[in-house]
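Handout, section B. The chain below has 274 residues.
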Amino acid sequence: MIPHKVLNIRCYICTYLALFFIFVFIRLLEYQILQFHAFFIKKNLPFGELGCKKILNMKKLLLIVTIVTMVCSAKAQEITWGVRAGLNVPKVNEKIKGDDGEWSSDYKSKVGFHLGVIADLGLSESFYIQPGLYFTTKGAKADYEGMTEKLNLSYLQLPILASYRFNLGGDTKLHINVGPYFALGVGGKFKYEEDGETYKIDAFGTSDEDSDEEKGGLKRFDAGLAFGAGVSFGKIYAGLNYDLGLANIANKDEWGSDYKLKNRSFNISVGYNF
């Protein structure tokens, strides 16, 4: 057991170093973005001011999330780490608005996996903040007449969960978890199979009129709400959770403003806490 004063000193040192790094990194990033913006304006290219504003907004969001996590770290009475891995059963929720109302397609669940690390920041004996970083796979599949469509997506996902622990006796605890998640797509494919032939296109990005390469028209950024429950037996953890995507990952320039596509995923996890 680490003495309380030593733990506080370690937390404050880590917090100050992290914040120093964040502010220096943010300033350098802002300088590079402004240089990037000036290049596009000078060349009269289409990326322009709107694209740079989106990047700056993401930078501010990253700063806010990181500061909140660092403040919680400084106030934490206990900090532990753990690893998680498990099975995903993802699908996508598709909605299309038309003249006859709103309708959905027949996308079905597929099987995926997740692997990552978590930090438990104990703010009291029962209440914790639990940020994590995962590599996780999502997507869906659909069967049409003579053709199968599969959507395979890979993300780096950052959940920031509020976790309340109920003591069930001994070293056994019930975990109730809820909080937002943010994800960045690092790879993805639309895969079509018909008459023994397979056709693949990149899921992320939009098609270029000057190129023959076809894109799936999906946005890399995703965000939503994660909630679930689990049980820890000493250092062993097992749990269930659900990722409810709230961001529309379909690019409106490719799919139109009446098309909505959102991630959903039911997950089964096991893990070990150090």
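Note. The mean pLDDT is 79. Compare this with the example in section A.
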